[in-house]
Design a protein that fits this description.
Helices cover 38% and strands 14% of the residues. It is of the alpha/beta class and 387 residues long.
Length: 387
């Protein structure tokens, strides 16, 4: 099992092992998107779990378009609360790399919020203007700099799962302004934002990466060759990775699907469990390209939770064969935030049972967590079912 606990150098930091806790929205912010005591306690538990890296859940760059009614928001007003989260986390574990996933929910925003879209068609969504997208890009830059000020080790520039960053990459983004149409225009948002972030950071140690869906499983989505295509073609997504390298980014976090539309691809269940193999395939394909072209980008794979107790063996295989650099767990970090520590010491792990209870809580806009191993969330889930 030694490869699981082999350190990994990233930027000028060292992750202590190859376990990565993926961004998992728990919808328990307060007072305008500040981390609540419950939020901070969740991340303290992850700190105690000794993960190699932890990605703080999707944190909106704006107050106006939110996917979760109690989602986190990063702005100057909330900065002290985010600093407290970092300080509490680091007090328990100064070795784990703590990243903040920054996002804009776009057409995935909830009806309680302002639903906006890049292209016409989304029901009830308002079409963004050229200048509005420019302002959102500026908010991503401001948010990254605030994350550095808060003490985060880096950011995850969210471009996956149907949110605005993913929408803009799609071949179906046929806007006629500078944000759509050609591949150059559809990657302008990432290119300009990251360039501005890099030029404004205080430290060269700050980690920059992005999670995106290699294939969304929708017509004209990421991982297709054109606006009217449904068949998988990853060539443009490989070009996005090459762009990330040219921008001197540090990692790519490989995912797939759009949870609200093709959720079985993103979060395989017991019924759709075989779809998890696509995640391994995509991760290996990205890692093969990175090695072949001698790119320094680190590759994080996703969707290890469905393997349950077999996950360490799958990790061992993927890491030892150099198909991945880090292995990402989402639902498992809810089920047992101490997973890496327990595996290292031979303790019994509470493995995710793929019941989708946490997903049901998220859809219901309730505090979100494991309904099997945590009494608080189990009671919420029972009340949700009664309702």
């Amino acid at each position: 099992m030694s490869v699981l606990f082999k350190p990994l150098n990233i930027r000028h930091r060292t992750m202590p092992n190859r376990f990565f806790s993926q961004a998992m929205e728990a919808n328990d912010g307060e007072d305008g998107g500040k981390p609540s005591a419950r939020t901070i306690d969740r991340y303290v538990e992850l700190a105690k779990g000794n993960w190699g890296g932890v990605s703080v859940e999707a944190t909106s760059v704006t107050e106006s378009s939110l996917a979760r009614v109690n989602g986190l928001i990063i702005n100057r007003k909330n900065l002290d609360s985010i600093k407290r989260l970092v300080e509490r986390f680091k007090a328990h574990n100064s070795e784990t790399c703590l990243l903040l996933q920054i996002t804009h929910s776009g057409e995935r925003s909830g009806p309680f919020s302002q639903v906006v879209t890049l292209t016409p068609g989304a029901t009830g969504a308002r079409l963004l203007s050229t200048d509005e997208i420019e302002r959102i890009k500026d908010l991503f830059v401001e948010s990254a700099l605030l994350a550095e000020e808060a003490g985060m080790d880096g950011i995850d520039f969210k471009m996956c799962h149907g949110y605005l960053g993913g929408e803009i990459l799609r071949p179906s983004n046929t806007r006629e302004d500078k944000w759509g149409g050609s591949f150059e225009n559809r990657t302008r948002f990432l290119r300009e934002a990251v360039s501005e972030i890099k030029s404004s950071l205080s430290s060269r140690d700050f980690i920059l990466g992005s999670r995106f869906s290699m294939y969304e499983g929708i017509r004209g989505g990421c991982g297709t060759a054109g606006a009217d295509e449904i068949v998988e073609d990853l060539s443009q997504m490989f070009d996005v990775i090459r762009l990330m390298d040219a921008l001197d980014m540090d990692y790519v976090n490989v995912s797939a699907g759009v949870p609200a539309v093709t959720g079985a691809i993103t979060r395989p269940t017991e019924v759709s469990k075989s779809l998890v193999l696509h995640h391994l395939r995509y991760t290996k394909a990205v890692k093969d390209m990175v090695k072949k072209e001698n790119l320094p980008l680190k590759v994080i794979g996703s969707a290890y939770s469905p393997y349950k107790g077999d996950a360490p063996a799958i990790m061992e295989e993927m890491l030892s064969k150099e198909y991945a650099d880090l292995c990402g767990f989402g639902r498992q970090s809810f089920a047992d935030p101490l997973t890496p520590k327990k595996i290292a010491s031979g303790e019994k792990v509470n493995w995710c049972v793929l019941c989708s209870g946490c997903t049901k809580l998220m859809i219901a806009q309730m505090n979100d967590g494991c309904v099997v191993y945590n009494d608080y969330y189990r009671e919420l889930h029972e009340n949700c079912n009664k309702a």
